[in-house]
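Dear U.,

For the methods section draft, I wanted the exact inputs and outputs in one place so we can describe them consistently. I've listed the two proteins in the order they'll appear in the manuscript figures. Please don't edit the token lines directly; just add comments below if something needs changing.

First protein:
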Amino acid sequence: MTVGIYYATTTGKTEDVADRLHNFISSAESPKDVSDVDDLSEFEGLDGIICGIPTWNTGADEERSGTAWDSILEDIGELSLSGKKVAIFGLGDSSTYTENYCDAMEELHSYFQKAGAEMVGYVDKSSYTFEESKSIIGESFCGLPLDEDSESDLTDSRLEGWASQLKGEIPALA
């Protein structure tokens, strides 16, 4: 059973967080930049997928990440991912962009869901300070939001807790 970690990045922060997450989930494959994926059907061969996405195009209705993810969203939605567990972590700035905190997670979430994936890794919003986010479903974020600009001191503990949560939600990580 195999779980892949994929990310896209502009500044290198999302890649760094993907590497740090891998330290807590060593049973997953080494993180891979999604721009290096030649054929997205690679996702169909995995038991689980963990995706990292930043939010750069704040306030946008589409292509919110400003990364390679934006150009493959439609293609992801056309995959057959039924039975696959998918979790998303996102990077954003909760103090400067408090009205669009980690919005890109929701966009990626919706395309993986459209492909039939079972979405996991939801995180309660109560321990975060922000005004609005498109990534809120009910009372939870649709993944793990992280703020390397204003709350970088919380990243490792949030990653460790989320990694433990994912090990219970994605059997291939156990």
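Second protein (the one for the lower panel):
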Amino acid sequence: MSILRSLRTRHDGQKVVVIGLDCAAPELVFDQWRDDLPNLSRLAQRGLWGDLESCIPAITIPAWSCMLSGKEPGELGIYGFRNRADHSYDGMFIATGDHVHEKRVWDYLSGAGKRSAVIGVPQTYPVRPLKGWLISGFLTPNRESHFAYPDRLRREILGAVPDYDFDVPQFRTEEKEWLLQQIIEMTEKHFLAVDYLMAKKRWDFLMLMEIGVDRIHHGFWSYHDPQHPKYEPGNPFERAIHDYYVRIDEKVGDWLEMVPEDTAILVVSDHGAKSMQGGVCINEWLWREGYLSFVHDPNPSELKPFREMEVDWSRTTAWGEGGYYGRIFMNVRGREPQGIVSPWDYERVRDELAEKIEAIPGPDGHALGTRAFRPQQIYRLVRGVAPDLMVYFGDLSWRSVGSLGHGNIHTFENDTGPDTCNHARNGLFILYDPRNPGEGQKIEGAQIYDVAATILDLFDLPAPPGAAGRSLVPHTPIP
């Protein structure tokens, strides 16, 4: 019997499969390539589907942990891949699994006696015990690490997929043929691992997360999107993203054939994708506006990372971090070691910064449509050391650039390597539950926080205590 057919003959209770596609864009799946993705389209036509509004910030970390815990970034105390560890000027930590202190769905399922199989979900390294099996995600250092639970699963996976990879080594590169091959090969290895767990292990809940979608977007968006300033018709990589989506869809079809017919299927992405028009040099702007001071003024023709600059903290009001969204940190007296902003003046200065940042024009002199968020206003709780402002430049059409020496506050080259895609606020979801199909209904207003409650509801379990979301499972038949 084929490995992809064997599980279909076994049935021991409700099963739920979650197919996570990091950065998958709803307009590509539901509109532009709908006819080319028959398996995803069939799930949507038979179930419920729609946009899935991401958290703020709309980035992989912390979005997947928000999705699977039902908790906001403020409650997690995680605001990105790198976070301030304290109020010093250089204390930072990388948000691995050790920094996720809220339960995620498999923890609740373990408590209810359900077996989980989890593959590639971010912030699962270092691994923690669960009832079932786990292969950690892209922050795993290498295949020599203890990347699986139980530990014997590591030997099994390396026996089935000896050169298993967690991520591509460098997705910001000009070596595009090499990059495309790396992404394809990595994804196929992930598929083999999913096949192995799906067929060889007993599970009630299975979740995979494929990082390759995100990597191919960041590496090839300008080759595929006619709206991107760098797009060239007829380029050799014009169909790279399309063909990758088609391969994902083919594999979804394999998995649908593999699982029992009454398995509930949930397809989700943590955020979407959009053309990156350029970057706003946030520290360059802060310096020009008098909020940031250096011992020696930046050389306008010498590109230099902010961390290599000698800041004069005694004259600095605020500084920023680069990334897909901008982070502004204020130098507050009594909070930072050499703070100069009075706590009594904090809100006035923060409001002033937010207003001026939102007014930064584009290169053509027109407003970018930037939004500056105050964590205390968008989160129910703020843990850890949050940015004082979180900035979506051009509503995420522009990224934040932290380095100096660009000679301008706008740049059209990414200072961390070639990258022509930014994240969009909305990801996607498709929910097909054969017990209660949705008949192709589009759902409006779904949020990333709804996913944890939805998964648990499919098992007739309550939502996580204090969850920000609600279940998307309809409790009355859909007309």
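Candidate sentences for the figure legend, describing the second protein: The CA atoms of residues 377 and 396 lie 20 Å apart. The radius of gyration is 23 Å.

Thanks,
Y.
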